Amino acid sequence: DAGVTQSPTHLIKTRGQQVTLRCSPKSGHDTVSWYQQALGQEPQFIFQYYEEEERQRGNFPDRFSGHQFPNYSSELNVNALLLGDSALYLCASSATGHKDPSGANVLTFGAGSRLTVL
Amino acid sequence: AQSVTQPDIHITVSEGASLELRCNYSYGATPYLFWYVQSPGQGLQLLLKYFSGDTLVQGIKGFEAEFKRSQSSFNLRKPSVHWSDAAEYFCAVGVYSGGGADGLTFGKGTHLIIQP
């Protein structure tokens, strides 16, 4: 059973460019969350998608946007890249917890996409 | 809003010795609590979780954690560490609201070094 897969694994961009990162959730999961982890720091919550809509958002500017597709996969887009956007971007999937809240909180993380902005 | 504090940035333990990593949380109610481990350049792997019930939870790789409501703590323990346990450990708190789980809030992590 494949876990969470992310692509690309590494990429380099220059300031002002735009980037798209992709995530396929674990089989059976329908909710996707994105986290940013700067070098040496803890992961920071960017946003969460459920039923193709942004359900919750962390403290990130509008330059960060996302999308969820009918097959539950997701994209993270970052516009007008800044040097400070250099980080490991982690995708995590989970199952909705309408009947079991405990399941909704159990995240499975991908290995991440390492973005370097020059 | 919830918060998590991991007081120890670095911890060095001899191989075979016992380990305890500290975690304190702040939240108005009982949150969901997690410990994740991260090897360099990798994603996060869930070690264990606490939702309710028994306050001593068992996880993978021989880890356990104890939830203490009176101390707002969720410390991670292992009786005997192995060199492969060297990694970054994150404590996290989650909240369930509005029919779904909110984004996790992570502590700043504890870097575990294993001495031979």
Secondary-structure topology with pairs:
The complex is a heterodimer of chains A (118) and B (116).
Chain A: E1 5-7, E2 10-13, E3 19-24, E4 31-37, E5 44-50, E6 53-57, E7 64-68, E8 74-78, E9 87-94, H1 101-104, E10 108-109, E11 113-117
Chain B: E1 3-5, E2 10-14, E3 19-21, E4 24-26, E5 32-38, E6 44-50, E7 56-58, E8 64-68, E9 73-78, E10 87-94, E11 96-97, E12 100-101, E13 105-106, E14 110-115
Parallel strand pairs in B: 2-14
Antiparallel strand pairs in B: 1-4, 3-9, 5-6, 5-10, 7-8, 8-9, 10-13, 10-14, 11-12
Q: Nutshell version of this structure?
A:
The complex is a heterodimer of chains A (118) and B (116). Chain A is mainly beta and 118 residues long.
What does this structure look like?
The complex is a heterodimer of chains A (118) and B (116). Chain A has 118 residues and is mostly beta strands. Chain A starts with a strand and ends with a strand. Helix content of chain A is 3%, strand content 48%. Chain A has 1 helix and 11 strands; from the N terminus they run βββββββββαββ. Chain B is mainly beta and 116 residues long. In chain B, strands 2, 5, 6, 10, 13 and 14 form a 6-stranded mixed β-sheet that branches. In chain B, strands 3-9-8-7 form a 4-stranded antiparallel β-sheet, with no helix packed on it. A two-stranded antiparallel sheet of chain B has the order 1-4. In chain B, a hairpin with a 2-residue loop joins strand 11 and strand 12. The N and C termini of chain B lie far apart (41 Å). The model of chain B has no long low-confidence stretch (mean pLDDT 92). The chains are: A mainly beta (118), B mainly beta (116). Chains A and B meet through strand 4, strand 5, strand 9, helix 1 and strand 10 of A and strand 5, strand 6, strand 12 and strand 13 of B.
